[in-house]
Specification:
Layout lengths: L1 E8 L2 H10 L6 E8 L17 E8 L10 H16 L7 E4 L3 E4 L2 E11 L2 E8 L19 H5 L5 H22 L3 H9 L7 E7 L2 E10 L5 E5 L2 E5 L3 E4 L18
Parallel strand pairs: 1-2
Antiparallel strand pairs: 2-3, 3-7, 4-5, 5-6, 6-7, 8-9, 8-12, 9-10, 10-11
């Protein structure tokens, strides 16, 4: 896979799309020290200061459009494995929030966005790494965190970036060869935030699915139990049901390369 690193870019996802339009060979990974116009799901702004991992990978997929709906979860799993390598003591504090976020102590540390045009997929990953949450917009201070804050010490941003690229591209390779295997599905389910809790999945246009988040389906869908049966939900935003408790966090961990 070809690698490109830029000091500053508007958006690594947009840069990959530009390279594809210019006829660049795929796969390609673009990283940046700083993004000035990073975007998450639904076009939401994503602050991207120095010290984070701002990564986009473009590749050609042989999977169907329906199958690639699971890619957000696949990329998030790659990030979790990378974080485990940087901070193995974090353990159960690191969770995957369906469909494609990574949380530490219930706060967002990573977001993933996947876009597809024809057979070209662009997967974007943003990880809040070696900076404090104060570097992010004030409006997200209560819901976001960074690895530096969670670990209580500095993070080697270069090492983190290499681990994230390796973890994400490795997870994509398995997905392209085998789809969502039982091993990966079970691994995601074991790290699933809010599993066993009452949740609301807001699908859009006022449609909401309520029930207990039971796990992950073989296609990457969220499995929700209600009225004695399980249903699969393939898209939406999951939040705790009103009145549900919030899980606790943990303290810092020892720092150093695993």
């Amino acid at each position: 896979m070809r690698r490109v690193h830029l000091d500053t870019i508007d958006s690594t996802n947009e840069e990959v799309r530009r390279l594809v339009r210019e006829g660049c060979a795929l796969p390609i990974a673009v990283t940046a020290t700083v993004q000035t116009g990073g975007r998450g799901r639904h076009g939401r702004a994503w602050a991207s200061p120095a010290g984070g991992v701002w990564l986009s990978i473009g590749w050609r997929t042989a999977r169907t459009m329906r199958e690639t709906g699971a890619l957000g979860m696949v990329l998030a799993l790659g990030v979790v494995r990378a974080v485990d390598g940087v901070a193995p003591g974090m353990g159960s504090r690191v969770r995957i929030k369906w469909p494609n976020d990574v949380l530490v102590d219930g706060q967002k540390v990573c977001g993933v966005v996947c876009e597809r045009a024809g057979d070209v997929v662009v997967g974007g990953v943003g990880v809040n790494g070696d900076f404090g949450v104060g570097a992010l917009p004030e409006g997200v201070h209560e819901t976001a965190t960074t690895l530096r804050d969670a670990m209580g010490c500095a993070v080697d941003a270069g090492d983190l970036t290499e681990r994230v690229v390796e973890g994400v591209w490795g997870a994509v390779g398995v997905f392209e060869a085998h789809g969502v295997r039982e091993a990966e599905r079970a691994e995601v389910e074991s790290r699933l935030a809010m599993r066993g809790e009452a949740v609301r999945i807001e699908i859009g246009r006022g449609e909401v699915v309520e029930g207990v988040l039971a796990g992950i389906g073989s296609d990457g869908s969220a499995m929700v139990e209600r009225d004695g049966e399980r249903i699969g939900v393939s898209m939406g935003e999951v939040v705790r049901a009103r009145g549900a408790g919030v899980g606790g966090g943990g303290g810092g961990v020892g720092c150093g390369r695993a």
